[in-house]
């Protein structure tokens, strides 16, 4: 049974590399092993190389990545050449990570390599990697293990790295160990901890020998906003905050350290001293800012440039207020609350707190508004203007908050278009694509049937120079609307379905809801296919009419019942008239149920088939023919308002000019 063991030791790796590097290396090794095995396959040995997941083990920490593979077949004779070639490809073609040049060396890699081990059946395979030759020497914890650890066999790796190396290399074991430490300390100190899984994974990547300790901070700092304390503990200290049995925040949190200290009290004392100094600085910033009320800072916004050629932050605030006046009428809500919130929305930019912690803009403005005794609705609206962000995933939820958030984000996009910034390149430094995606999410998930083109026009009217260039409205509208595709892929909606109806409405919520329902009904092929069949027949009749008479037919004429000669024609026309009335009633409901509309469409299939069998559509009298075709054109115009059903089967729409 052949065994291969590879370990590469680095400087501290970025967190995401712990998944990317092993997967890249395994993929390249597998490809090279399989290629060599296929080339050397002979009549006596017809068995190909294969790897099973159960035969592969991956060990990762911040300073090392190790791979152990068992049951390798058909590559024993040329293992050294295969590994050299595979590692060379791995180093030059690794994807997903930025590579850099280290020191005076000509090569590039994500981090400097400190040691390198390659063992095949416990024998060293001599390979050179970035001026480092493979050997049996591994290294343990950076503090607790100063000397190298010699590996005679690959099976010794886990045990020797643990003692005397003080390194737990198994990632899943390390993660569960940290989880149990947190739960044990929370039970011991009688408080509750909500373990954030993403934070737990990040900490597990960072530490090699985890030790959990409880840190206390001064109770006076509990007067700071709860969200602020949680953010600083969670994202700045990389720790777990705690609450009491009543779910109130307490002045304790759990830290995971990468150190096995005999003097834990000293370690706790140093951490407590650091956090108290940190919170003390924050409290001083807040107290210094509160010497002036928030609305008094508006004059200072005149001295802060928003963007070149777009004026100051005060100019942007005035634009937002004017936009909100139109948005609030369209969306709904209290106009006085929205205007006041818009006036105060940018005043926190020049506070000392936001200068130090830029991520808290919006939140700190909301907190200072609360301290200044503004109305509850006002500081809630200010808080929502930058949602969602990197740390808070919730969307604006009040009508005033939605108006302020949309007016701010759409104004930003218009400004970037006005400046001529290219928004589709890979280096999107202004996060314009993310901004457009957030606009779409706010409209869709708040279930607001808003006309996006109308919102853009309201905002663009404030830019007098752009007002003449109407193409800006269409460009911005299409740029934002394209981000619905991100949502459709997330919810596993067929892209073809969305493309078939994206030109039928300017309302993102209506488009998304319609595509979601059609995707659901697409599995029930009898419904969708019957509608597609109707559209095919109608299109064929319209094309035949154009071919015979060399012109298109438009709805300038009305259907004339005088040309009907049989009861079948009268009955069909009455059923179409009833169908149109039912359709109009369903559409008038606003957020209509498209499932009912599509079911209504599918009922026409049998009626149209019966009508075509009984009646000759094309007759010698051109007026009778035109009258018959007008009925089909009337139906086609209704279908095209919902979706281009011809496009659903991969056929290009043939509706232009009809």
Automatic annotation (TrEMBL):
GO terms for molecular function: ATP binding; glycine-tRNA ligase activity. Its EC number is 6.1.1.14. It catalyses: tRNA(Gly) + glycine + ATP = glycyl-tRNA(Gly) + AMP + diphosphate. Coiled coil: none annotated. InterPro entries: Gly-tRNA-synth_bsu, Gly-tRNA-synth_heterodimer. Keywords: Aminoacyl-tRNA synthetase, ATP-binding, Ligase, Nucleotide-binding, Protein biosynthesis. The keyword Aminoacyl-tRNA synthetase applies. Pfam families: tRNA_synt_2f. GO terms for cellular component: cytosol. GO terms for biological process: glycyl-tRNA aminoacylation. It comes from the Bacteria. Tetramer of two alpha and two beta subunits. Belongs to the class-II aminoacyl-tRNA synthetase family. This is Glycine--tRNA ligase beta subunit. It comes from Candidatus Portiera aleyrodidarum.
